[in-house]
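Hi support team,

I've been running sequence recovery on a batch of backbones for a student project. Most finish fine, but this one hangs at about 90% for roughly twenty minutes before it completes. I'm not sure whether the input is malformed or the queue is just slow. I've pasted the structure tokens below so you can try to reproduce it. Let me know if you need the job ID as well.

Thanks,
M.K.
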């Protein structure tokens, strides 16, 4: 007989670390607001949400790795990378995705990805609470589901 397991969106009694890039803060503040709103609406106590501000998206993996070793149910990573006139955006975006993916695969707790990569500020704002929803909210929702599923494995 096949046994299927899935996570529920239950936050009560769980603790979360949210690591946020300060670069493009006008966008990342909205991502953080969405993540906190999602967590608290699903039963997470405000005292059980630790927010760690880092200089930019490049620093997310470093602090997320350290936070994943603390007493948390999941780590939520939030950042905003907006394309400029140079190749820097591509290098940075690829490295951040690579490092966070590696951390997620090796971590003992779920690590979720809420880093926006956009061609311009308008696209970034659309993904941070405007037309296209809030990627901070969806990263937090994934963290809730995975944290619950983790406990069933």
């Amino acid at each position: 007989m096949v046994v299927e397991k899935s996570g529920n969106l239950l936050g009560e009694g769980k603790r979360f670390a949210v690591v946020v890039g300060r670069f493009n803060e006008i966008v990342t503040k909205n991502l953080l607001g969405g993540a906190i709103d999602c967590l608290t609406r699903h039963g997470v106590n405000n005292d059980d949400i630790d927010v760690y501000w880092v200089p930019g998206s490049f620093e997310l993996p470093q602090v997320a790795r350290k936070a994943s070793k603390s007493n948390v149910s999941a780590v939520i990573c939030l950042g905003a990378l907006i394309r400029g006139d140079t190749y820097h955006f591509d290098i940075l975006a690829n490295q951040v995705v690579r490092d966070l993916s590696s951390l997620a695969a090796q971590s003992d707790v779920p690590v979720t990805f809420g880093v926006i990569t956009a061609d311009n500020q308008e696209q970034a704002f659309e993904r941070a609470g405007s037309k296209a929803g809030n990627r901070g909210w969806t990263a937090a929702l994934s963290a809730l589901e995975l944290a619950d599923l983790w406990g069933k494995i």
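--
Follow-up from support: It reproduced on our side and the slowdown came from queue contention, not your input. The CA atoms of residues 15 and 72 lie 5 Å apart. No action needed from you.
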